[in-house]
Amino acid sequence: MPDKSVLNALDWGKVEGHFRHRVKVSKELLRLLDDRKITAFAELAIGMTENAGNYSAAEHPSLRPRIAENPNWRERVYSLGTQFRTLTDPDDVRSLITKANLNYLQIGVGSEMSCMVNPNISWVCNVRTIWTHLAWTENPGVAEKHLALYRESSSQSAMDYMSWAEVYHPLLRKTLPEVADEGAKRAKAVGIAPKGNLFLWADAIASYAYGKYHGEH
User: Fold this and answer.
1) Would you give the DSSP letter of residue 3?
2) How far apart are CA 187 and CA 193, in angstroms?
3) Measuring CA to CA, how many Å separate 4 from each of 109, 132, 161, 179, 209?
């Protein structure tokens, strides 16, 4: 049984506010794709012009300038975005990131980018969502142990970066919709009804659950 305590004490108004802003940015990214605004899309997609475009990149400031060191990076990020948008099978996310061959644009930044342009198919795979997965399937204490190991760069951590590609598909695919559903029930109880954008809603919950546990919200 899932440990639903990880969602206790969340301010659902704040979670919804975060979610709505992310949906707004997601729609802007889709507009930029449609209008072939290559530079504007690429810069927003890696969180360069607004952190909400890609928190995985924004939380690691050195990533954005390093991604920008790739030759023709804007055109390549735009091309990757068009491929993410038409996905019907999230199993393709990892292979598309690999084929894009953009240095420093890996599963964290790449999966968030895929979620922002295809939020009902692709999900974010980063520290916050994996921590939430562990807290949900085990308990917050187990999640904290793995987080501590991760921060020590231990390969024994379930959050080990090199394991993320494997964690991305079989585990988060199941956990995040469960978290989203439980979150929707709790939000409804206080008069909030999020609609659509499944994995952006799940990501908003994961962000606030992680943040609440670590004193960030």
Assistant:
1) -
2) 6
3) 27, 10, 25, 8, 11
Give the model confidence (pLDDT) of 44-94 as tens digits.
999 999 999 999 999 888 999 999 999 999 999 999 999 999 999 998 999
- What's the CA gap between 98 and 100, in Å, rounded? 5
The encoded tokens of residue 138 equal 């085990």
What tokens appear for 191 in the block? 């008069």
pTM: 0.95
Alpha carbons within 13 A on the beta-carbon side of 175: 27
* Cβ pair 59, 46 in contact under 8 A: no
Give me the residue spans of the domains in the chain. 4-9+124-213, 23-117
| 53, 47 contact by CB (below 8 A) | yes
The token pair at 9 is: 């004490």
Q: Quick check: 215 pLDDT over 90? A: no
C-alpha closest to that of 64 among 79, 51, 80: 51
Cα–Cα dist 45/54, whole Å: 6
In degrees and rounded to multiples of 5, residue 22 shows phi and psi of -65, -40
